[in-house]
Design a protein that fits this description.
By secondary structure, the chain is α+β, with helices and mostly antiparallel strands. Helices cover 19% and strands 18% of the residues.
Length: 304
């Protein structure tokens, strides 16, 4: 039976499509293998874990692993350090950018703990005469502390006797606070109001002192302001004063802050005005911390 014209047309079209497909056998879909690295699998690359800064120091003494909700200010308070020092020790260009799981140094590097100081046992110094003048010897001696100029022998003094006399060494300046490392500061009360809540381990890290809006809040001891701001949730307008390598104090919920960071303060100096920022009532939340650990201020402060 003769083939109908419509069937002939369909058969011819099918034949043309088959020939066109055979003419370009190497063409692939344009989305295939997009983003896949040569010789590797895109799935395996995507599943590779991100290595966070400082991960190699996790669990080591002197290092802290960032937890959810942490800020550099909170880490500094918990470790008893200046947040600017922590940023410097960890080369943090933007201290606001820290990630959960990141490991940061919270103790000074050994090179910063006592720069240029070598501790040796005390004993009778032995003076060895040198064939050079006192000026030449002191200038060439690498043990001469920086900033100490060599002594010049007086007129008429022989070079030998001058070299036999050790040049005076200027001792390092004492810290700006009223307590050296390991010594407890001479505390005073930070406010005159009544104690509304006492220290409680794990719940209240300090004392809650009552008062009226604008009542003076004073430094509990000599020291230097390491933080003044409202960047720590739950503390409101906060001042942190560092008194020595070991001790710092915190003054929270203030209405106004009267000091700025890196400012030296004296015991009894007004540093803030009492308020209720981040609190339900007017109060001062006061903390004393030793190496970051909260202490009971009632046991440290003098009797009223």
């Amino acid at each position: 039976m003769p083939m109908r014209p419509s069937i002939r047309l369909v058969a011819a079209a099918a034949t043309l499509l088959i020939l066109a497909g055979c003419a370009s056998p190497g063409r692939r879909a344009p989305v295939e293998d997009q983003g896949r690295p040569a010789g590797g699998s895109s799935a395996s690359s995507a599943s590779a874990p991100k290595v966070l800064p400082g991960a190699e120091n996790a669990g080591k003494p002197g290092y802290y692993t960032v937890k959810p909700g942490d800020t550099l200010i909170r880490i500094a308070l918990e470790s008893g350090q200046n947040w600017r020092d922590i940023a410097s020790w960890n080369s943090l260009e933007n201290p606001n950018l820290i990630e959960v799981g990141q490991v940061v140094r919270v103790v000074p590097p050994a090179s910063e703990a006592a720069p240029g100081v070598v501790v040796k046992p005390l004993g009778t110094p032995r003076v060895e005469p040198r064939p050079t003048t006192a000026t030449t010897t002191a200038a060439a001696d690498p043990r001469t502390p920086p900033g100490v100029r060599p002594a010049t022998p007086a007129s008429g003094t022989s070079a030998a006797s001058a070299s036999a006399t050790p040049a005076p060494v200027t001792p390092p300046a004492p810290p700006s606070s009223d307590a050296r490392e390991g010594e407890e500061p001479n505390w005073g009360w930070p406010a005159a109001g009544p104690v509304l809540a006492s220290f409680e381990e794990g719940r209240n890290k300090g004392l809650t002192i009552g008062g009226k809006v604008g009542d003076p809040v004073v430094a509990a001891a000599d020291g230097r302001v390491v933080y003044a701001g409202s960047g720590l949730r739950g503390y409101g307008n906060l001042v942190i004063v560092k008194h020595s390598a070991d001790y710092l104090t915190a003054y929270a919920h203030n209405q106004a802050l009267l000091v700025k960071e890196d400012q030296a303060v004296k015991r009894g100096q007004k540093i803030a005005e009492m308020g209720s920022t981040d609190a339900e009532r007017v109060q001062l939340h006061f903390e004393i911390r030793k190496k970051g650990k909260p202490l009971d201020p009632a046991r440290q402060l003098p009797a009223r």
